[in-house]
Design a protein that fits this description.
The chain is mainly alpha-helical. The chain has 3 domains: 116 residues, no CATH class; 51 residues, no CATH class; 79 residues, no CATH class. It contains 15 helices and 4 strands. α8 packs antiparallel against α9. The longest helix has 28 residues.
Length: 292
């Protein structure tokens, strides 16, 4: 089944083979591809774009190797093969390449001690794609963690909508654009954009409780006057009721993503004028020495 047929099967029957096809191509080492970005199969262009979306995550692999005390040259097959090749050239005059390795394999097995030949043979198999490198193993583990929960929904969105009567190039271009757009929308779905003091960012809203939502810090109501404490408790009951029912659309979110009250909404729920509530809250802040 080719790429276009896989899309058609998914659209018509829900056949999900196309997702396995794309995930498999995400194991390809695009950075060291001898043909650059002139890739032989259209699904490889989609896989490459998906990898670009998580390039920041993939870049952390080198730090993982460092934390494990692994010298990158010890696990890089190109370095290993080139290092052994230089030694072999100096000692025997044989110029070893990936292409002529099979020709010299028997001699090398006798020339090197077993563990050295084993390392060289492993590097050769990694270079021809028979074995994954340690970096590829770690990359595959990372991709598996994000592919199903984050990338597949974006792919579903794109593959359901792409017009398979278009050219292969147009299909790939549409999928890559739609996937990227949907992927980033998923990242902020359920989040809220906050602008404060020149800052603007998306935050994941959460609560620190009704008490915090009123004045932005935990307040001991015993420090308030009797009337202030009564108002404070009344507001807390409204907030707790809203939070329990998931009714949070009428609340602000601060730069840290924490729910805060909107005076207009709370005033309406209590049955007072917004200006009156604002003055009462300002007096609470002054009494508690809380900066506005």
């Amino acid at each position: 089944m080719n790429f276009i047929e896989g899309i058609k099967r998914y659209q018509a029957e829900g056949d999900r083979y196309i997702f396995d096809m794309i995930r498999r191509e995400m194991n390809y080492n695009y950075l060291k591809s001898p043909t650059g970005m002139d890739l032989p199969r259209p699904e490889m262009y989609v896989a490459f774009r998906l990898l670009r979306l998580i390039s920041g995550m993939l870049a952390t692999i080198k730090y993982r190797l460092t934390e494990e005390g692994t010298n990158i040259t010890q696990v890089d097959p190109e370095y290993i093969f080139a290092d052994y090749g230089r030694q072999l050239l100096d000692w025997t005059g044989i110029r070893l390449t990936v292409e002529n390795f099979p020709e010299h394999a028997s001699y090398l097995r006798e020339y090197y001690v077993s563990y050295v030949f084993s390392g060289l043979y492993t590097a050769y198999r990694q270079l021809i794609g028979e074995l994954p490198t340690l970096q590829q193993v770690y990359a595959s583990e990372l991709i598996d963690k994000v592919y199903e929960p984050l990338m597949v929904p974006a792919l579903e969105y794109a593959l359901k909508r792409v017009d398979t009567s278009r050219t292969e190039r147009e299909i790939v271009r549409y999928i890559n654009f739609a996937v990227r757009t949907e992927y980033f929308q998923q990242q902020v779905r359920g989040m809220r954009r906050v602008r404060r003091a020149g800052q603007s960012k998306y935050v994941d809203p959460h609560s620190r409780g009704a008490n915090y939502a009123i004045l932005g810090k935990y307040v001991d109501e015993r420090q308030l006057t009797a009337n202030q404490a009564d108002l404070f408790r009344k507001i807390c009951r409204i907030i707790e009721e809203d939070f329990k029912g998931g009714h949070v659309s009428d609340y602000n979110v601060d730069i840290d993503g924490i729910y805060r009250i909107k005076n207009r909404y709370i005033a309406r729920r209590i049955g007072v004028h917004e200006g009156s509530l604002s003055r009462s809250l300002r007096k609470m802040r002054e009494r508690l020495n809380i900066a506005v």
